[in-house]
UniProtKB/TrEMBL annotation:
PROSITE patterns in the cross-refs: AA_TRANSFER_CLASS_3
Classification of source organism: Bacteria, Pseudomonadati, Pseudomonadota, Alphaproteobacteria, Rhodobacterales
Gene3D superfamilies: Aspartate Aminotransferase, domain 1, Type I PLP-dependent aspartate aminotransferase-like (Major domain)
Entry similarity comment: Belongs to the class-III pyridoxal-phosphate-dependent aminotransferase family.
Cofactor dependency: pyridoxal 5'-phosphate
Protein name, per record: Taurine-pyruvate aminotransferase
Highest taxon in the source lineage: Bacteria
Amino acid sequence: MDTTNFFNDPGHVIEADRAHIWHHLSQHKTYETADPRIMVEGKGLRVWDIKGKEHLDAVSGGVWTVNVGYGRERIGTAIAEAVTKMCFFGGTAGTIPGAQFAEMLVDKMPGLDRVYYANSGSEANEKAFKMVRQISHKHHGGKKYKILYRDRDYHGTTLGALSAGGQDERNAQYGPFAPGFVRVPHCLEYRAENGLTGEAYGHAAAQAIEDVILREGPDTVGALCLEPITAGGGIIVPPKGYWERVQEICEKYDILLHIDEVVCGMGRTGTWFGYQQFGIKPDIVTMAKGVASGYAAISCCVTTNAVFEQFKDDTDKLSYFRDISTFGGCTGGPAAAIENMNILVEEDLLTNSTAMGEHLMGNLAGLMDEHKWIGDIRGMGLFAGAELVTDRDTKEPVDEKYIAAIVADCMNQGVIVGGTNRSVPGYNNTILFAPSLVATKDDMNQVTEAVGNAIKRVLG
């Protein structure tokens, strides 16, 4: 095979992709009449496709990952140096990059101490679920095995993670699921069914979790797994009072609090981790995506020493955490993560996330004044959503086909935004924003101008 065609003949690349690649989250019937999109270069917030078109990427690689932006040569160099010297060794042994990044990471997470390396957010969450189940068997006679998860939250694409998935359209056609996963209600104030607002709603939403615990039996519940801010379920920032009460409930019933930071981690909300916005103290934190900004595959399941110590017992040959993630032993991931964190610190990107997030929300508020279709805007840092409705009084959601049309219109304008789709039945009506943390005011202005143009063309 003459591989030079792949560099000199875009048409050849497109046809090879069409013939052989099974794209994520894609209906391939579309590619019978349209070319698959192929990205070839990125710099900062901008990417270029194989046909030469430039796009401003307001969703960090399509799935909220490239936190420090594209084209970071120093990360590529760090990966090359690490994998050339020692590319891999299974996680039964350590590596220098692994030890270095673990120390850097827990320094940003007071109260957490142990890092378990894996490859993806789904896998990190699977590790946490297995820890909870093993603790149940070792210390609670196997009874405290149930894991609670929240409506609209998403924790991954494996069968175990889907068992804890609060997005029914993501789960559809993949059951039956693992037993012992129990759903609790969402905390979206805009869609509150009890008429409460503010802190009163926050306490009521948390109380709904306690109600589920009492129904199931507190002695059967081992963990509560939540996103600090619900991501793909519509960018849901929990109301005031919610997280404080959730923490109290977990402590009251000896339930491990597992926070899924796969999306919110590494500065997206303006703090290192989303849970730090709310002053809570989790027992387990999982992360991926922004840990290395997509430059290498890495995820982490981070625990307190109290969790870790429950697996130290040399009188029982089955007492240790009998798990392995093969490519958790690759040095490229932690090497990339080290440089990624250094960039976040040196360029003060957490501060920029807060500042540019405020600018973005201000722009979205302006769009809301201009377009009656926007019923609610919400977010924190460079993580925001605009929920579209047919009528502000009834809050009737627009059909998801209009969200898809707005996203497509923005793409034609050279701006990439996201939209909830095929996730929450009847409520796939939110436009999503999660640009890299290097975003500027001009970038945010371009994004919201494109969205405004798209809404006008699609909805009038």
